[in-house]
Amino acid sequence: MRMDRTLKLALVSLLFNMVYSAYHIIFGITTHSWWFFTIGIYYAILSIVRFVVLRHKGKKYFVIRFTGIMLMVLSLSLVGTVILAFVKDRGTVFHLIIMLAIAVYAFTKITLATINWIKARKSKSVKLITLRNISFADAFVSIFSLQRSMLVSFEGMTDMEIRIMNVATGSAVCIIVFLLGLNLLHTKNTL
Prior knowledge:
Layout: H1 2-31, H2 34-55, H3 60-87, H4 96-120, H5 126-153, H6 159-190
């Protein structure tokens, strides 16, 4: 029963990730924004990983190893977005209402990921463990995107301070996503 509900929530999350990815890719292409395009690609790959986890019926170690490696690779690709955030693209200015919607979305993701982590921390289910780490990777990138937009949408920081904050937060997110992948590879050895 609990697993069925978790898988249903994961399918809903997969659907949202696919829509979110498509939005970012299309918006990135139409506005010539490398940031939106690369974030869209990130979410597309994360959606593929989530889909593989949900659909795979074979050896459980394949799923956990595949997800761990993919999260580590995605963390390395995020380094490019951090460099891009420093060199070229500071962020997109949004209206207050849109910023509030983005904030609610990002904080909902981090809250749900934390709740799922608490529920699944003693679980031996490979699907639950991998979905938990994917959710955190998803949530932390959303927080990074939120921060980038907030810094340029609200006054108070200089251009260089914004760039430094983007690099600091982006680097932290890259490290966290890499560690989430590494955690899965380590978990594979303990299951």
